[in-house]
Amino acid sequence: MLTVADENMPFASEAFGTLGRVRSLPGRGIAPADLREADILAVRSVTRVNGGLLSGSRVRFVGTATIGTDHVDTAWLERAGIGFSAAPGCNAVSVAEYVVAALLVLARRAEFTLEGRTLGVIGVGNVGSRVLARAEALGMRIIANDPPLADMTGDPLYRPLEEALAADIITLHVPLTGQGRYPTSHLVDRDLLERVRPGTILINTSRGPVADTRAVKSALGAGRLAAAVLDVWENEPEIDLELLESTAIATPHIAGYSYDGKVNGTTMIYRAACGHFGLDPDWDPAGLLPPPAEPVIRPSAAGSDPQSLLADIVPAAYDILADDRRLRLAAGLAAGERGGYFDRLRKQYPLRREFSAFTVEAGGSPPGLGHTLAGLGFRVKA
Q1: pTM attached to this predicted model
Q2: Annotation: CATH topology of 296-381
Q3: pLDDT value of residue 302
Q4: What SS3 class is residue 259?
Q5: What superfamily would CATH give domain 92-250?
Q6: In this structure, how many other beta carbons lie within 10 angstroms of the beta carbon of residue 308?
Q7: What is the pLDDT of residues 157-184, one digit of tens each?
Q8: Which amino acids are annotated catalytic?
């Protein structure tokens, strides 16, 4: 068998190599001619998978090593009899840690305390539920909104959208859908932003088109939004430069780019491909992930308040502002160069391990900090 895989998928050659030959290509450049002899197509979010790409090929299975599937025409695959699998939850921890990092940066900049603040979590699936748990570890109050889950479960945890819009901070974790009872394309539009409280903070790590670019720029300009943290953008990789310059934190669609999450995605679709072809998986990534360069974090500000300590500890594991600085360099490039630069930031993304790969030596820290660190996913040594 021949697998064509996005070159940005770690261990794709090792995993799918157990099934036959592997050809790695830039995800955005995969073309019909590349797939004529392929049996498996393994992609990430930048490859548009549809009849135009696959017609005339012998591909029998498509896997996307991502949570989202809006880049895949699943209805066409079903009609064509082609197997399909996504990787739900593969990078959920990574995205949740990104949100934690963003919250701590914003709180330090604006000098506010996270404990007691309200966080409106819109979308409480694999990612949103992990964001919720970590926000609670930070002492925040949660307003969870997820209409499909509310309909399915009747759980009073899920509150109406209007309640979530009253939160101090709103974070988006919904799939991109344009149809159905609860479409999310331009969910955040001018009308919605006129219903939030002045001074609200918006975080979007879901999909760019969930938020209307013009509406977000207008709300930031008018002060209805105090700040926006954007990891995803409409029209990627050709992002809106004015919106980039207006955001508090801006990153190039890498919230879920922990190495752990990427490897999880590869593993999940490899195993799904094996299942589709009736084969036993013969590859396992256990023990293959490299350790962080500095796996032990020793807080230097003993005696400080817990939030200040957290704001020092978290960047030692994941420095969100380094990602922000790299993307902002796009503002100095010619218009025709920005899209390629955006893609290179993703392709050449530095190795990032999740908090669970780090041990924090918390001896002498304020009471309760160890419990909070554990709630965020860190290993803790007293």
Answers
A1: 0.92
A2: Ribosomal Protein S8; Chain: A, domain 1 (3.30.1370)
A3: 55
A4: helix
A5: NAD(P)-binding Rossmann-like Domain (3.40.50.720)
A6: 16
A7: 999 999 999 999 999 999 999 989 999 9
A8: 207, 236, 253
Read off the pLDDT of residues 277-335 as tens digits, 9 standing for 90 and up.
Answer: 999 999 999 989 999 999 999 987 655 789 999 999 999 999 999 999 999 999 999 99
H helices of 282-368, where? Answer: 306-317, 320-328, 335-347
**Residues 51 and 73 sit within 8 Å (Cβ to Cβ):** yes
Positive or negative torsion for Cα 351, 207, 264, 21:
negative
Q: What angle, rounded to 10 degrees, do the helices at 369-376 and 306-317 form?
A: 30
Q: Is residue 59 classed exposed, middle or buried when 0-12, 13-18 and 19+ CB atoms within 10 A define those classes?
A: buried
Nearest-angstrom CA–CA distance, 313 and 301: 10
Which helix (H) or strand (E) segment is 221 a member of?
helix 213-222
Of 115, 42, 72, nearest to 267 by C-alpha is: 42
Asked if 131 and 99 count as a contact pair (C-beta separation under 8 A), the reply is yes
